[in-house]
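Format notes (please read before filing issues)

Several people have asked whether sequences and structure tokens are stored in separate files. They are not. Every record keeps both together, in the order shown below: the sequence lines, then the token lines. Line labels are part of the format and must not be stripped during preprocessing.
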Amino acid sequence: MDNHQGAETEVPTSRVAFGVGCWDFGLRHDSSFPLDLNQYIALLRKGLEAVSSLNNLEIVPFDDEEIEIKEEYLTETDAGPAIFLPGLLDHIKFDLYIPFRIQKELTKSYVQPETRTENFRVHIHYPYYSPVSYVELIKDNASSHPSTAMKVVREYMKSQLDQSPSNVIFTFVGPTPFHADFQIEGYITQNQTDNVFDCELLDSPGYADITFRYCIDDIRTIEDACEALFNELDHELSLFYEIHRNDSQKYERWAEIEQITSNLTEHFKNSGWRERPRTARTRGRELAVLYVSLAQFEADHILDEHYINTAYRSIYGSNSSALMKSFLESALRDRPVFPTKQMTDLMAFIESRRSKTIELLIVLIAAVVGGIVGSLITSIAK
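Then the structure lines:
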């Protein structure tokens, strides 16, 4: 990131603090499907307009083409309501008034500073990979922790829509808020780089402080500056949240694999010699399911890695800004590593024990049957 060096002694002519997150809206199962885009927007508008103190709602579709929206696209999944369907909307924007009394109730478990404002402007953009949300703190020029606003607005929207009779549900993906406090400031001095925005990052053990600066001769109003900055951040943050969504899905799938493995190992560890033959016969199907699940997981993991790495190279191609590159690099470095080889070795061990148990069972049955047949032959001969 670039560090601004020409405006340290200046006082900004305008400033806006904002937080970043990943939000979206889906529909409950009892909605009438399939829907076209206009019907979806109408349901979404009706649900959002029912939220108390929500004003100036703006919903802009991505395209005017006819799109059939099926139930599985926008309803809660078995893994939870992490819903996102690209190509429907361009953006949603609205204003919220949340009194300090309600803010205190919503954040009673948090020990962060107050937002210092009761007025918020919410922008939800829909780039290619994942939605990106921005919350401006209106008429607050002093807050050093605007990420608190993301928590306030998130909990407020969730509580309002959970209690609403509308079909709209509120969903979000972590980390939301993004682990940084953002500000945008306008100065008279020209930026020190060729970019529209200079960026200063002050890293810390907690949330980082990120300040974007621009020249007021290039962008006249702070509102226009916010829109321009959000549009510039969209693709980087969209991929950042796509990485986290992808990781979350992998954790959920791996938890299912671990559950099957745990069931298998527990049965073999706890079963006595009398139960072991029955266990060996009945657990063959679970072992087959585990083999298939692990193979699918490994194949999907390879494809996902290629997809994410290709997207990263595409975003940071020639002539592209890199305002949030360090955060994407960190997200890529911190991606989970799953012990697929160790799991395969464990399955091979369980299968070998199961096979030996079955072999011994067959030998035992053969010996018993052979003894019975021998006795019968001897009796007949006598």
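For reference, the curators noted about this record: The chain has two domains: 14-218, 245-381. Residues 169 and 370 are 68 Å apart (CA to CA).
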